[in-house]
């Protein structure tokens, strides 16, 4: 598998053209935009994986003169309702075929706005895990009062987590946030219900010890309020808690909209204020939309996989492709492997 | 212990006068306001528990002509930094003495803006648990898009929860929200990462079964986004997750303030918009301030205990006292005992 973008070698990104709710149009449109904005004159090529007819029909809706692409046909589609474990057996799906291209060395990365659970399970099976990584993980970027976001992981891939898993999430999260946002020596916090080392479950107390002994920049336990404050660059927690907080955060927009609507209905003055406020509020809440960061990486698998929201806009797809290229260029996985197996090594029993 | 407010019997509420960050002034002021606004011509009396001199000095800052009160002196104060387990041994503290008044039948309820962990542990020891209740719990009221709030419990009292505990939280939460907000047949949701019964940890799957078999109005699994949506009236989860979400929600105000400040600094027009928006935003975010609901009840102990935020304002204290009186009047504990032991009974092995 190619891991670096050199002048002589083509970097190929397989894109699940059937993944999102607006597939394949948003996928095609996003890829075209990526070539207009970022990949002009590059050695990058996108491989659309999915229904060839539908892909060609979508292509013809746009000017795709700048696009460098190929198409790999796939008959089947994994929907959002498909069970992730069953999806692994749908070998003619765009999701499976796209990942297979990477596992067989025909692509350097895979991008999908499809069924997250299915991407996770199929990636783990087809690509395997990076040596030393116990569990692949999905994180999410939260806005913070600092200039860079707070990276919370896991947000749903791993419900029950051992201390070792949480420690590995911290290692992978640190490498990701350093490479993606240029944060040197990222501050790592352990999500807990108090600052003291003795707080929380046994697993959290054990994780605290692992993190304290590591070479990571561990700042100790952090609380729910520290995510948006930006107290830490990387916050680790089990996937149940991370998922609850992520979905809670995403629901603020709807809550706020409904509050603004009932406020604006009270009188004509309020209606005017609401009108003035609207674009500003939209801007703040866009920060909670993880499409803005161009999807999130699946960390810990032996390959590059970017997962987007089902509702991904063309802009989100565009940024997911850009993110995938960056991850290949930055050799994130080599860095994770090195960190997990040597740099951050604590003891052989861990 | 008196459990009902009749014409002939005095209802006594013990108030931890030394509990909050602004004690005893806010406590005294809040009590005076309660008598002005709610308890005029009632048979209610407040017992200030704490340093007699300081209490008297605070009283003289106000017109307390409407107040019906007595003072029980307590030498010691449990601070926010005291370890909850150590606090149990501080028998001369206002917190301990106030709860002792209730356990010995001299008071019908206890109200404190002090150390939550200390109130929890001391209440459990001095008052005991309601028969059939495994763990006392603390919930919190979240604003929702519905007219009544969403009651999330537990929010920090119980880190590791068995299915039985979560089930009991659902029973207690339902009774509380019905009595406090007049919600008939409250909808109960189990906080999870997907709707399907098979989602989440083993404990959550087991809890799902218990709730489904019960007479509660169980609407199934709910996700993080459902709290603010108001999909359910009562949302149950372990105290770790509830605490993280609560503190995350409380931090939105700070995040938003900082976003508004940086927005208003951009130009004079933005500054004007920010000025117009401010009172409105304040109003929305006030909903996330649990003082507005007058503190939260400690459910499952054999008595009435209301816990407030350390920063409780006089208004918050006032509402906490009102809440305590309502809980005594509504005989919440008798209802919980009945529901846990008979009405919602599933099987003897539970």
Structure, explained:
The structure is a homodimer. In chain A, α1 (about 25-35) packs across α12. The two termini of chain A are about 30 Å apart. Chain A is of the alpha/beta class. Chain A contains 13 helices and 11 strands. In chain A, β10 (about 295-300) and β11 form a beta hairpin. Chain A has helices at about 25-35, 50-60, 85, 95-105, 115-125, 165-180, 200-215, 225-230, 240-250, 250-265, 270-285, 315-330, 330-345; strands at about 10-15, 45-50, 70-75, 110, 135-140, 150-155, 185-190, 215-220, 235, 295-300, 305. Chain A has 2 domains: about 1-135 and about 300-330, Isopropylmalate Dehydrogenase, CATH 3.40.718; about 140-290, Isopropylmalate Dehydrogenase. At the A-B interface, α8, α9, α10 and α11 of A face α8, α9, α10 and α11 of B.
Descriptive tags:
homodimer; eleven-stranded mixed beta sheet; alpha/beta; Isopropylmalate Dehydrogenase
Structural domain count of chain A: 2
What's the CATH topology name of the largest domain in chain A?
Isopropylmalate Dehydrogenase
> What topology, given as strand order, has the largest sheet of chain A?
3-2-1-4-11-10-5-6-9-7-8
Give the name of the CATH architecture of the largest domain in chain A: 3-Layer(aba) Sandwich
Quaternary state, please? homodimer
In angstroms, what is the radius of gyration of chain A?
Answer: 21 Å
Secondary-structure content class of chain A:
alpha/beta
Specify the helix fraction band of chain A.
40-55%
**Biggest sheet of chain A, open or closed, and with what strands and sense?**
11 strands, mixed
Strand content of chain A: 15-25%
How many helices of chain A in DSSP terms?
A: 13
